[in-house]
Amino acid sequence: MTQIHPDTNVPVLEELFIGIAGLIGAGKSTLATALGQHLGLPVYYEPVQENEYLEDFYRDTRTYAFATQIYLLNRRFQQHQEIIWRGGGGVQDRTIYEDSVFAKTLVQQGLMDQRDYRTYLQLFRHMSNFMCRPNLIVFLDISPQTSMERVRQRSRDVESGISIEYLRALHKEYQAFISEISRLIPVIRVSWEQYHDVEEMASVIEREYVKGSFVRDVQWTPTRAI
Description:
The chain has about 230 residues and is α/β, with parallel strands linked by helices. The protein has one domain (about 15-220): P-loop containing nucleotide triphosphate hydrolases (Rossmann fold, 3-Layer(aba) Sandwich). Helix content is about 50%, strand content about 10%. It has eight helices and six strands. The protein has helices spanning about 30-40, 55-60, 60-85, 100-110, 115-130, 145-155, 165-180, 200-210, and strands at about 15-20, 45, 90-95, 135-140, 185-190, 215-220. The protein has a six-stranded parallel sheet, sandwiched between helices. α1 crosses α8 (about 200-210) and α4 runs antiparallel to α5. The longest helix has 26 residues, at about 60-85.
């Protein structure tokens, strides 16, 4: 049973379904892990190691774009439903809603067929009828340049072909996505050009969520690094 904050009548942080959103390399997995440990919540990671399409996607994006997007949509739907049906909250490393950012960018760059994109959107809409929304989304806002630097630092072989142009296109779509999704789900947007301490981040999330508003650009001077 979800615990309720006595002063605000909203769920306490340890019972929340929190989605971590952001560009490639933003630091979603790192923050999700730290928040999960700090709050005692299960963490649901983006399927990277087990993604049998990912290497082919980066090698021949045009051919494997649709199959990769469908694979990711299916896996994230599975995670999303598991969080809801298990109860007790959870932290998800990239939300199912963000997949549309990547799909739309692929179409705009001529790497996914419009017909495939329409099918993808129809499938997502059908799935959305069976989804409960997260309590909030934490958006780690970084520049395309920072995204590129962090991708290079983690040195995943499959990501070696990512271009700054692709990241700029994703960044543009992410800004539009956050504006749109915030009409449905509370969003806390944090500049993540520098990593922050997880305990402070948890306190900021709780403080801003308890206020019960929607898009909030959170700024503060950290006393510790993550």
